Structure formats: structure tokens, C-alpha cells
Amino acid sequence: MDTSKMYELPRLPYGYGDLAPYISEEQLRIHHTKHHQAYVNGANAIIERFDKARKDGVDLDMKATLKELSFQLGGHELHSTFWQNLAPAGNGGGGQPTGMLRDAMMREYGSFERFRKEFTQAAVSVEGSGWAVLTYCEVSHRIGVMQVEKHNVNFPVGSPLLMALDVWEHAYYLDYKNDRAKFVEAFWNIVNWDIVDKMFAQLLESRKPVLVRA
Ligand code: MN
């Protein structure tokens, strides 16, 4: 098996202590090296399980295995997006978007404040463990806030992730105990809008239609 094609934990684009006081060094280190790593390991283990089952000619419980795979892969992808869209406060983190994303945000929400309010409400109200994300619909050409339950439920297939906020308790329990709203409030100080803006510009470029539909 070519293990170079397996899933890997991405390095953080900042140090573990750099997001303090909004996310403490200990919280970020555990979140990245334990929780995210577990999803990477989980996804790789399922791929290996498939390889082995095919080699041995045995059947897998397809429903249970694929459900688990979507959970582990969702966890890996969402965490990778989350780390990328964070930056130290005052050093890339905080403020507001400035580029094409700002234009799209103004069209959709009328103001940054309205967007922030809707995203906050989505994050705070996720039932159980999950995420608030910013996505884009290439049919309506509108950006939008969505909730993801767990890592893989309640999110339309094929929707791109522009920004993600982890509201699993494992994301904030050391810093904020059970106070999710306080963590969500802190998040706005460490959003890397420059990256989210670039992701959006890149997405629009890559999704330019290559076929004209009749
Ligand atoms: Mn997490």
C-alpha cells in the first residue's frame, strides 16, 4: 500500500501559544494533537480496513463502515479548514473581510454585523457537537451560513468550506468550561479574514463554468 496517499495531520500555520488568550496553548495543543489526530487515524484505519477486506475477500458492514468514514473524513476536513482560518489576534486575526468576500457579504447580509450575528447564532445553537461554517452555493451564487452536526450531518453534499468554527465542547472546555457563547465571541478576535477572502477568490476562479448547459 502507498501510505503517502493516506491522510495526515496538517501543521498549524502558527504556534500553539499564539492564539492565546482566546484559545490557550494547552487547549489548542490537545485539540490539534489529540482530537484532530484521532480523526486522521480513524480515516486511515478505515481505508486500511477496506484494503484488508478486499485482499482477504471478506465483506464489511458497508452501512456502518461508510457512516464512520464520513464522520472521520468530515472531522479531518473541518479541522483542517478551522486551523487555516485562524490567526493570532492583531497579527492576521480579527477585523473584517476586505476583498470579494466583503462584497458578497454586503450583498447577502447588508452589513458585517448582520453576518456576524447570524453566524454566531448558528454556532451557539448547534444541537450537541458540531460546527458553524461559511459556504457558497454555486447555483444561487450566494454565500451562506450552515450548521454541521457532529462532522457530517446536516450539511449539503458538495458545498465548499470557506470558514469553519468548531463548537464541539472539546474545542473550548479548558478555557471556557461549558460556556460556548463566550468561546464563539472570542473567535471573532482570531479569524484570519485574509485567508477566507483568498479561499473565496480561489473558489470563484475554480468554479468558472467550463460547459454551457442548454
Ligand atoms: Mn474539534
Keywords summarizing the entry:
binds manganese (II) ion; three-stranded antiparallel beta sheet; about 210 residues; mainly alpha; minor pseudopilin epsh fold
Task: Report what the structure shows.
- By secondary structure, this protein is mainly alpha-helical.
- The chain has one domain (23-205): minor pseudopilin epsh fold (3-Layer(bab) Sandwich).
- 49% of the residues lie in helices and 10% in strands.
- It has helices spanning 25-56, 62-84, 100-109, 112-124, 173-176, 180-187, 193-206, and strands at 130-137, 142-149, 161-166.
- Strands 2-1-3 form a three-stranded antiparallel beta sheet.
- Helix 3 (100-109) crosses helix 4.
- The protein is globular.
- The model has no long low-confidence stretch (mean pLDDT 95).
- Bound molecules: manganese (II) ion.
- Manganese (II) ion binds next to helix 1.
Helix/strand layout:
Blueprint: H1 25-56, H2 62-84, H3 100-109, H4 112-124, E1 130-137, E2 142-149, E3 161-166, H5 173-176, H6 180-187, H7 193-206
Antiparallel strand pairs: 1-2, 1-3
Bound molecules: manganese (II) ion.
Residues 31, 35, 79, 166, 168, 170-171 line the site of manganese (II) ion.
The radius of gyration computed from the alpha-carbon positions, rounded to a whole number of angstroms, is 18 Å
Number of helices: 7
Work out the number of β strands: 3
CATH level-four homologous superfamily name:
Iron/manganese superoxide dismutase, C-terminal domain
* CATH C-level name: Alpha Beta
Give the end-to-end Cα distance, rounded to a whole number of Å.
44 Å
Question: What amount of the residues lies in strands?
Answer: 5-15%
